[in-house]
């Protein structure tokens, strides 16, 4: 196989080293590249104990990108298991579906331990996930031991029998699954925050209305609506604004043109009465700006 690849390639160097490290099967997993393709591996894992997959032996494929380990692998199962679909690239934080969560320091061994640790977790509708009943999964776990791969042979013979060391591996798998879940959640939150920031940045801004910009419009409303004193017909046409409108409008001018440091004059009783009527008018026309 060495003659087929550029030995200077970082991906080739890394995969050859990992193939050497994983050449001996363990109680929980075994994985090796195909004889004619260093970038396609077959793996065998044991179902986690104290779960619906207890006693199951599961087989699958790992497809690695040319720029591994800078990008994550694709993972799919070949054994029916009730948790992941067969022949479908599954969605995990250590798979190709989430490159933002992948870390180059992770390895194929990391992926295998993470898969075992994630198997008892709910699918939550992720790509390639299934939510079979516990009874169905237990039945599939028993059936999985008879699976035979066309390339690897009987998968039940690929891993070692359980020993007392299995408890240590189980704790490592659970810790790794929890760590990867936290990484995935952090990336999800960061992505949502970035999307929210983009929405805020691109949202059209509505300029706030200046009080002074509405003075002319308000004055026009005063002149057109307060056109008669009490006892007069308000619907009758008027050629000149009433005294109320004149006083109210002039008070607007004095208010809007006053300097920032000037002290307001005390309003007279007549002016207070007129402004009371003006206030009632504003209430009845609440749609004004």
TrEMBL record:
<dbReference type="InterPro" id="IPR016135">
    <property type="entry name" value="UBQ-conjugating_enzyme/RWD"/>
</dbReference>
<feature type="domain" description="UBC core">
    <location>
        <begin position="10"/>
        <end position="160"/>
    </location>
</feature>
<feature type="region of interest" description="Disordered">
    <location>
        <begin position="249"/>
        <end position="268"/>
    </location>
</feature>
<dbReference type="InterPro" id="IPR050113">
    <property type="entry name" value="Ub_conjugating_enzyme"/>
</dbReference>
<dbReference type="Pfam" id="PF00179">
    <property type="entry name" value="UQ_con"/>
</dbReference>
<protein>
    <submittedName>
        <fullName>UBE2J1</fullName>
    </submittedName>
</protein>
<dbReference type="InterPro" id="IPR000608">
    <property type="entry name" value="UBC"/>
</dbReference>
